[in-house]
Amino acid sequence: MNINNDQFNEGLLKFIDASPTPFHAVATMQAALLKAGFQELKETTAWGTLEAGGYFLTRNASSIIAFFLPENVNLAETGMHMVGAHTDSPCLKVKPQPEKVSQTLWQLGVEVYGGALLNPWFDRDLSMAGRVSFLDSKGALKHALIDFEQAVAVIPSLAIHLDREVNQNRSINPQLHLPPVLMQVEEGENTDFRALLEQQLRQQQPELDAGRVLDYEISLYDTQPSALTGLNQDFISAARLDNLLSCYCGLQALLASDHQRPMLLVCTDHEEVGSCSTSGAQGTFLQAVLQRLASGSEAEHRMLQNSLLISADNAHGIHPNYADRHDELHGPILNRGPVIKTNANQRYATNSESSAYFRYLCELADVPVQDFVVRSDMACGSTIGPITATRLGIKTLDIGVPTFAMHSIREMAGSRDAWFLFQVLSKFFSQL
């Protein structure tokens, strides 16, 4: 890929803005893969013997696997170099029966998805996006993506005059305090959310012939575009950096590799809620694909033992205002390269062999590398790394780009770190 850091970041920001939900992220990745000549496979059809080339498939339209097979490959002998990430981010999701009118204001009931940092959701210009299931004029059940694109909702804060202790002790009740305001209504005015979705579908995609909406998965998101920030544009400020940044870096590394060895990218949904779903890392998606690529159980076992998975998920950069929340010797700094994440209690899948190999890759790519270990008196989060390692028995390591404000509505990373991660993942995919 003949581009520089600035061009890479431009593409990253466009990808994030085009991907307000996991469904949109997968659709955006699909388009890039098709443009690069990858062929789409379906889980419901027979694959036969796949020729050399690139392929991809999706599950639930929110998880995606893309892989490349070179000529005359024996996967049992070569194994596969794999990169894993996740497509979901903490957010607010609209409930099935969300309609609520209070004080002449139409609001929506929402549910908190994942470990969201809730305070930053107040007083933001919010829009809605997701997947809608509907009947067309012929009575056929269809599904489509929807995005309102413009600001259509807000969760207003309570004025400080009515809560004088708010800056000392603010607690949020998700049931009572998070329903967003959509519009002001008169008595008897229609407040049917499904009818609103039907109207939006017809306006945005008239070719769908959309009729009655039966169900939906709709999330709220911040309409503020992603941006380079700081006096010297040292930073990226954006929603969903965790973990769309890793998805984008993995995808671009896959497309930019020399395609001389077997390689695979897996981006799954529902990591933020434990990965326990058909399209999550605890599901069968990756395992089923690998089984179909291997010719028998013995070949599959050999392939897995000759493979390596890099689980790429953002790391906690050392915050200048809260430096005491880090182990002083393991505080990753923004713009100093990707971070190897280690935990003695196996919350990360890294071991000395996999971490040593990643350090070696960073040397080959001329990329700096850092370490993160959580403070010994604090709990440690986890990733798809340990889940995938346990399910498949594949050697795995956990790495990521240092980030501030993880799980906020708007996160912050270094403007050079995504480029660093792309470079080392490209080297990984090209390493024989």
Automatic annotation (TrEMBL):
GO terms for molecular function: aminopeptidase activity; metallopeptidase activity; zinc ion binding. Its cofactor is Zn(2+). Keywords: Aminopeptidase, Hydrolase, Metal-binding, Metalloprotease, Protease, Zinc. Signal peptide: none annotated. InterPro entries: Peptidase_M18 (IPR001948), Peptidase_M18_dom2 (IPR023358). Its EC number is 3.4.11.-. The keyword Cell membrane does not apply. GO terms for cellular component: cytoplasm. GO terms for biological process: proteolysis. It is an enzyme of class 3 (hydrolase). It holds the Pfam family Peptidase_M18. Belongs to the peptidase M18 family. PANTHER family: ASPARTYL AMINOPEPTIDASE. NCBIfam families: PRK02813.1 (NF002759). This is M18 family aminopeptidase. It comes from Methylophaga lonarensis MPL.
